[in-house]
Write a structure and sequence with these properties.
It is a single chain. 45% of the residues lie in helices and 13% in strands. The chain is an alpha/beta fold and 239 residues long. The protein has 2 domains: 124 residues, Rossmann fold (3-Layer(aba) Sandwich); 92 residues, Rossmann fold (3-Layer(aba) Sandwich), CATH 3.40.50.1100. Helix 1 packs across helix 8 and helix 8 packs across helix 9.
């Protein structure tokens, strides 16, 4: 996979007028605790409720007419579901979303409200992915992966570009890791535009395969354990 800075730049142009360029907010309490100036990138104010619409829209916009006519499918822990559902709705195409059975009711209802067909299957995100791949073949749909896709990564990278524009004095950026899509996009953009910035990835302690995978030199699957951070509970990263 070879995502370039120009891909992120193209995504920025494509997403103009579609996404909300979200604000960077000073967090006084966190700044006091850490002893440094700390800021939050408020992607909770994004359309569909999270950053996921950036990558989903960038991917779906580039599908062929035939692919759009057949519709798209994906699996999600909840946030990607809403991003794909919104992107599909804006393009007037059908979306089928497989969510794990533990998905929060709020995310299930929000995804349905955006017009997607929701299927509940599996105890974990990874089991939902496996079933969605079966449906992809059975129904001849186009897959919009939550993180293992160049155009999805480029779309998420627009977050990093906005950070550089709005907070060029940043020295450290901390990013959550589920499958790795958002940190890949942000790191690509930021390290090209502000090479001295350090980018740190953080995983939920109960589902943390990335450090082990980096040490092994290949993706490693870990055992799933319950975590409040359901949106990043991915047992196996991709690269």
């Amino acid at each position: 996979m070879a995502v370039k800075l120009s891909d992120v730049q193209d995504a920025r142009k494509l997403l103009q007028g579609v996404i909300n360029p979200t604000p960077i907010i000073s967090d006084e309490k966190l700044s006091s605790v850490l002893g440094v100036k700390a800021y939050l990138k408020a992607e909770c104010l994004q359309r569909s409720g999270s950053f996921k619409v950036r990558g989903a829209y960038n991917k779906i916009s580039r599908l062929s007419d035939d692919e759009k006519q057949r519709g798209v499918i994906t699996a999600s822990a909840g946030n990607h579901a809403q991003g794909v559902a919104l992107a599909a709705k804006l393009h007037g195409i059908k979306a089928t979303i497989v969510l794990p059975e533990f998905a929060p009711l709020t995310k299930i209802m929000a995804t349905k409200a955006l017009g997607a067909e929701v299927v509940l299957k599996g105890e974990t995100f990874d089991e939902a992915v496996a079933y969605s791949r079966e449906l992809e073949k059975e129904l001849a749909l186009t897959y919009v992966h939550a993180f293992d896709d160049e155009m999805v990564i480029a779309g998420q990278g627009t977050i990093g570009w906005e950070i550089v524009e709005d907070l060029p004095q940043a020295t450290v950026i901390v990013v959550p890791i589920g499958g790795g899509g958002i940190i890949s996009g942000i790191a690509l953009a930021v390290k090209n535009l502000l090479p001295n910035v350090r980018v740190y990835g953080v995983q939920a302690a109960n589902v943390a395969p990335v450090k082990k995978s980096l040490a092994a030199g290949e993706p490693i699957e870990v055992e799933f354990q319950p975590t409040i951070a359901d949106g990043i509970a991915v047992k196996r990263p991709e690269w």
